């Protein structure tokens, strides 16, 4: 093999390895307008295509050359602070958020035979009570942030409020179902009516996906 060909192969291999170490913008598992009217195409374009893309790009720049380069996203969130933590947390939050949805349905419910449903009933007494507590946490979170249904290492469930870009993994929890209450997540569709957004949110949850996260 000619020297130039060898160098070209080495270059391609090096480039491939480098590119694999960078985080990428996740692809949506549905059409960009699939969540309408709960979440509009315009909001998805802004939220996924601009906000999340910005967090991913910033994270790649910030970890380059640090001890956190090449580390998994969960590890970075648990072991960082400042700008790296903010961008890593928001990347993780949004990756989980955008992959938990499906086309809206008025009768969107969790299968009563699932492990998650049984644990919800054990914890809150009824599914409606769980939704009430989740809505209360999402409506009552002051400022920007997230609300998550999470599980601990024993499989018990908890609802937590996370300020700004934080994620339950910082408290040793596994995030299952999250709602973004930063204004950019709903303002184009609901203006200042956060509660309306929260109520509509339940119509687009992919409960099969959430249960998979619970049993993993």
What does it look like?
This protein has 216 residues and is mainly alpha-helical. The chain is globular. It has a 3-stranded antiparallel β-sheet with strand order 2-1-3, sandwiched between helices. A hairpin with a 5-residue loop joins strand 1 and strand 2 (157-163). The protein is 50% helix and 10% strand. Helix 2 runs antiparallel to helix 4. The longest helix has 23 residues, at 41-63. The protein has a domain at 115-215: Iron/manganese superoxide dismutase, C-terminal domain (minor pseudopilin epsh fold), CATH 3.55.40.20.
In percent, how much strand structure appears in the residues?
5-15%
As for the CATH topology of the domain at 115-215, it is minor pseudopilin epsh fold
Number of strands: 3
SSE sequence, one letter per element: HHHHHHEEEHHH
- Which structural class matches the secondary elements? mainly alpha
Q: State the share of residues found in helices, binned by percent.
A: 40-55%
User: Which overall shape is indicated by the principal axes computed on the Cα atoms?
Assistant: globular
Radius of gyration, in angstroms, nearest whole number:
19 Å
- Our count of helices gives 9
Write the CATH architecture name of the domain at 115-215: 3-Layer(bab) Sandwich
CATH superfamily of the domain at 115-215: Iron/manganese superoxide dismutase, C-terminal domain
What's the CATH class label of the domain at 115-215?
Alpha Beta
Q: Please, what is the average pLDDT? A: 91
Write out the strand line-up for the largest beta sheet, numbering strands in chain order.
2-1-3
Please describe the biggest sheet, giving its number of strands, its sense, and whether it closes into a barrel. Answer: 3 strands, antiparallel
What are the low-pLDDT stretches, counting only 5+ consecutive residues below 50? 1-20
Distance between the termini: 48 Å
């Amino acid at each position: 093999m000619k020297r130039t060909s060898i160098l070209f192969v080495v270059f391609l291999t090096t480039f491939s390895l480098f590119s694999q170490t960078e985080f990428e913008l996740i692809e949506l598992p549905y059409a960009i307008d699939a969540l309408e009217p709960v979440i509009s195409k315009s909001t998805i374009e802004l939220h996924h295509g601009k906000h999340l893309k910005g967090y991913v790009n910033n994270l790649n720049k910030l970890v380059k050359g640090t001890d956190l380069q090449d580390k998994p996203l969960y590890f970075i969130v648990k072991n960082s602070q400042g700008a790296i933590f903010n961008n890593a947390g928001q990347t993780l939050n949004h990756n989980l958020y955008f992959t938990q949805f499906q086309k809206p349905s008025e009768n969107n419910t969790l299968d009563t035979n699932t492990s998650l449903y049984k644990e919800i009933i054990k914890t809150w007494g009824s599914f409606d009570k769980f939704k009430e507590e989740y809505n209360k946490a999402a409506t009552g979170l002051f400022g920007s942030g997230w609300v998550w249904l999470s599980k601990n290492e024993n499989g018990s469930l908890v609802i937590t409020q996370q300020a700004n870009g934080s994620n339950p993994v910082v408290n040793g929890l596994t995030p299952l179902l999250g709602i973004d209450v930063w204004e950019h997540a709903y303002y184009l569709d609901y203006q200042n009516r956060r509660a309306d957004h929260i109520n509509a949110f339940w119509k687009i949850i992919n409960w099969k996906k959430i249960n998979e996260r619970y049993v993993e």
